[in-house]
Design goal:
CATH class of the largest domain: Alpha Beta
Number of helices: 4
Strand content: 35-45%
Radius of gyration: 21 Å
Order of helices and strands: EEHEEHEEEHEEHE
Strand order of the largest sheet: 8-9-6-7-10
Largest sheet: 5 strands, mixed
CATH architecture of the largest domain: 2-Layer Sandwich
Structural class: alpha+beta
Helix content: 10-25%
Bound molecules: zinc ion
Number of strands: 10
């Protein structure tokens, strides 16, 4: 990639900033997360501000470790740091943190939103319960937020009891 400063009048090093976007997650086997693509970052920042970037990602479904990292060099002249912050608000980066345990024999759907909850930590696939999908007796599902999880419960298991665990 070629980088030039020819289009900028009076370029000053003070107007450049390095932005590090990093997402590291460990221990989530059934994960649902989103990290912005370079094209999205470019769209959000606009061509005037986005200068160049380099990215790294490690997201192998057989490992319980995810690492995304993007380093962006931005040119702040017009918008300043507050303007940059405003634009960055439009970047979406998150990790699903609501898990729902569907128990068909008990007819319950249990929400776990605290990632230190022992039930969540110990969740796993069993013969009759799935991880990320449902089996005969139910299983564990991940959602982006509580609202999404509740909507799923109401739609798929309207007669089950909803338990807010943690
Ligand atoms: Zn819990």
């Amino acid at each position: 990639m070629e980088v030039g400063t020819s289009e900028i009048e009076n370029p000053s090093i003070d107007n450049f900033r390095r932005l590090d976007l990093t997402l590291k997650v460990q221990g989530l086997v059934d994960r649902k997360l989103s990290f912005p693509e370079v094209t999205q970052i470019k769209d959000v920042l606009t061509d005037d501000v986005y200068w160049f970037s380099s990215s790294f990602s490690q997201n192998n479904s057989s490992e319980d470790f995810v690492h995304y990292s993007t380093e962006v060099v931005v040119y702040l002249r017009e918008i300043g740091e507050n303007g940059l912050r405003d634009r960055l608000k439009n970047l979406n980066m998150d990790v699903a943190y609501t898990n729902q345990h569907v128990d068909k024999p008990l007819r319950t759907c249990t929400l776990h939103t605290d990632d230190s909850c022992i039930y969540w930590i110990k969740k796993g696939e069993t013969s009759y319960k799935g991880l990320g999908h449902l089996k005969r007796d139910g299983g564990w599902l991940s959602f982006n937020d509580e609202k999404e999880a509740v909507v799923y419960k109401e739609t798929s298991f309207p007669k089950y009891q909803l338990i807010d665990h943690c």
